[in-house]
Amino acid sequence: MTKQVILGAHFPGVNNHTVWSDPAAGSQIAFSSFAHLARTAEAGLFDFFFLAEGLRLREQRGKIHDLDVVGRPNTMTVLAAVAAVTEHLGLAGTIQATYNEPYEIARQFGTLDHLSGGRAAWNVVTSPDAFTGENFRRGGYLERGDRYVRAAEFVQATRELWDSWDSDAIVADPARGEFLRPGARRGRFEYSTENFGISGNFTVPRSPQVHPVILQAGDSDGGREFAAHSADGIFTRHSTYDAGRAFYADVKSRLARYGRSPGSLKVLPGASFVLGDTPAEAEERARHIRRQQVSPQTAILMLEQVWNTDLSSFDAEGPLPPFDPDPEAPSIIQGRARMYDDPVTVARKWRALAEEKNLSIRDLIIEVTGRQTFTGTPASVAAEINRSVQDDACDGFILVPHLIPAGLDEFAATVVPLLQERGVFRSSYEEGTTLRDRLGLGPARPAASWAAARREHADA
Amino acid sequence: MPETSELHLAVALDGAGWHPAAWRSPDARPQELFSAGYWTDLAREAEAGALDFLTIEDSLGPQTAGPDDRTDQVRGRLDAVLTAARIAPHTTRIGVVPTAVTTHTEPFHLSTSIATLDYVSDGRAGWRPRVAASPDEARHFGRREFPALTAENVADPAVAAHLSDLFDEAADAVEVVRRLWDSWEDDAVIRDEPTGRFVDRDKLHYIDFDGHWFAVRGPSITPRPPQGQPVVASLAHAGIAYRLAARASDVVFVTPSSAEHAAQIVAEVRAAESHLERPRPPLQVYADLAVFIDEAPGAAAARKRRLDDLDGAEFATDCAIAAGTPGELADLLLGWRQAGLDGFRLRPGALPHDLRQITGALVLELRRRGAFRAGYAEHTLRERLGLSRPANRYGASRSQTGRSQTGSYQIGAA
């Protein structure tokens, strides 16, 4: 059977993938930029718009990182405004389970789902780091191993809250004087676990999707298992064909133990892209973009992340440091995950590669970091996307443009029609459908059913 | 005429209106209280009357405290900040001032959400901070235990201390929110290719707030909002809340029962201010008033009585209630205004009826008397309230004027 491709549109993030030095680069914070990308995605019939979140500005060597695009809106607030300028597009927001409470997150996503007519999605992330915790009263108190336990309980709590109103609780019948149906459940809840002890009345009546779509981002074993027992989709870094197939098989194989079918969890890698009229043109543009993404200063900075020391006296157009990193030194990076587990080995490998190919620091960084997932003509990119989906390397992609706000325009105009021609992508939005419907997830399963499946597995 | 200066007029939106039976009015839309279309229409109506701003009520619990099995009143509410953000792109001039609770929430999130509302409304955002004192709401979060609150025990020392703590916490929350708004200087983004720097880190500031309830390091993840400091407006019924307003707010909503009472409250508010070194212009004092308006003499009072009958009780709220013709209401507003009020926040008894009466007949009547603007002139909410764009506390020597270059995007101008 031919699978349909799922497409998400990621608003470019605060990292060096997002090019700010290009003449076409616009504001990273003006609402017009969010509206532009969302409308492009909607014109291209995308499934959803996607926003990342970071709650502390990154630092390196004790200073705020100043080379990348930085500064972004509150996720929920901007999504509510994007709902006003779109009609069908799903609205997916990344929200921390660590620095929030279920009651407020359930209210916010319930509200967004009402105000968007059933288009809300929550990408659940959980970070226990004390650095980010310095911005919050909740602090960074989570043990790393506990974070998925709390995240699962958190999501379960929000589902209980979303279920706490009967679907027909509101009758609003003035003649009978009944706003609420007598006897209906109207928000009463109680949820008590290791991490939460909450009870009372939830204020948001049942929303169109009942439960917003739940995504999970995190490729670790714990993250995969969390997705298997608690999420509708997983946002992953495994975007290449081979890595994707292995990841897909692994994640889908975990579903049966929770009584779930393979189709009930969508695997959605993040993917970047560069298009050109010919393969050569696409390659040339990709090279140009890579140089924009890796400025001389960024190259030094990324080298420091491996060497874990101040390398500001090195010339980015010159050779790599002749010495090895000190693995014992305290980390110089704050606010993002540590990227290299064995820096000495990485450094030696990089030095060998640079010597072999005669690469400068900047050339080397361009060579070894983040190349684009898809580079080619619209036809070849459409073919690659379709192959990944049909061969079960994924169920679709969350596309990450490198330019704000117009970075998706060309893709929507050229690749989408080719996917439509292949019969693997919609040619219009179906009226009156929710995001959940569009993704083929079926109606929301009651909270109790999710909890029972997890419990049964734990008991087994 | 002594009343040639113009009044400020805001409208307080909540559910189907402030009367508990308002949802049963003939033109009410009770099936749509949780839909975007309902709120958008209300916002456009308020904007059609050139009102200064609208507020949206909110709380972290149901409309009534304690056990509740009534089925004949509206229950349920959407998040006010998100509702404000949802309607902002459909309007171009009216200020949007949602309520958001400071008690169980994170000041960091409050700061970025109101800053973002300011971006999506292009400089029209405000915020009404509110405390959540009840043990019911505390149980929704399960992190703190609050004493029961009754009409009788508010004077108990333990309860008084609890309330005092909540207001102190709210003042700290507003301080953190305000510092975070300033934690990016307006010109922090430099996009300087020769040095490879997107941002000038010297223009990003740690706020290093360390208080009794929370410590927040900063800087914000959101650049300084278009207005610099969105408008903070708080509702106050008594001394403790006047003091919070004096410490934290730009606008205070008060609840006088008469012109004389209004004068007394204004004096109390001014006294609360005089005890502080206020780093901003004097508080603007608005009186809250629940209103029922109809053109025919006696019709508004009769309509209110019918709603009272439906509800089985005479309507009572925490502010004065006025029912009358547009002329009578204009007389009342202009009379009370002499007590030193800058404006009013009108709470429509029933929506959309009383909102339409405000934006239609009442506004016309006030204009006829030279007491209300003919239309919008200013762009940002601060400008409309006569508040200049404030200097950044972390970059005092720099420019104080002009909106930041944020671009603008609006649809559906009313």
Keyword list:
heterodimer; A: alpha/beta; TIM Barrel; eight-stranded parallel barrel; three-stranded antiparallel β-sheet; 15 helices; 15% strand; B: 414 residues; alpha/beta; eight-stranded parallel β-barrel; two-stranded antiparallel ribbon; 11 helices; 34% helix; disordered C terminus
How would you concisely characterize the structure shown here?
The complex is a heterodimer of chains A (460) and B (414). Chain A is an alpha/beta fold.
Could you characterize the architecture of this molecule?
The complex is a heterodimer of chains A (460) and B (414). Chain A starts with 5 loop residues before the first strand and ends with a helix. Chain A has 15 helices and 17 strands. Chain A folds into 2 domains: 359 residues, Alpha-Beta Barrel (TIM Barrel), CATH 3.20.20.30; 74 residues, no CATH class. In chain A, the strands form 5 sheets. An 8-stranded parallel beta barrel of chain A has the order 1-2-5-6-11-12-13-17, surrounded by 6 helices. In chain A, strand 3 and strand 4 form a beta hairpin. Chain A is globular and about 80 Å long. With 460 residues, chain A is of the alpha/beta class. In chain A, helix 5 runs antiparallel to helix 15, helix 9 packs across helix 11 and helix 12 packs across helix 13. By secondary structure, chain B is an alpha/beta fold. Chain B has one domain: Luciferase-like domain (TIM Barrel), CATH 3.20.20.30. Chain B contains 11 helices and 13 strands. Chain B has an 8-stranded parallel β-barrel with strand order 1-2-3-4-9-10-11-13, surrounded by 8 helices. Chain B has a two-stranded antiparallel sheet with strand order 5-6. In chain B, strand 10, helix 7 and strand 11 form a beta-alpha-beta unit. In chain B, helix 1 runs parallel beside helix 10, helix 3 crosses helix 5 and helix 6 crosses helix 7. The C terminus of chain B is likely disordered.
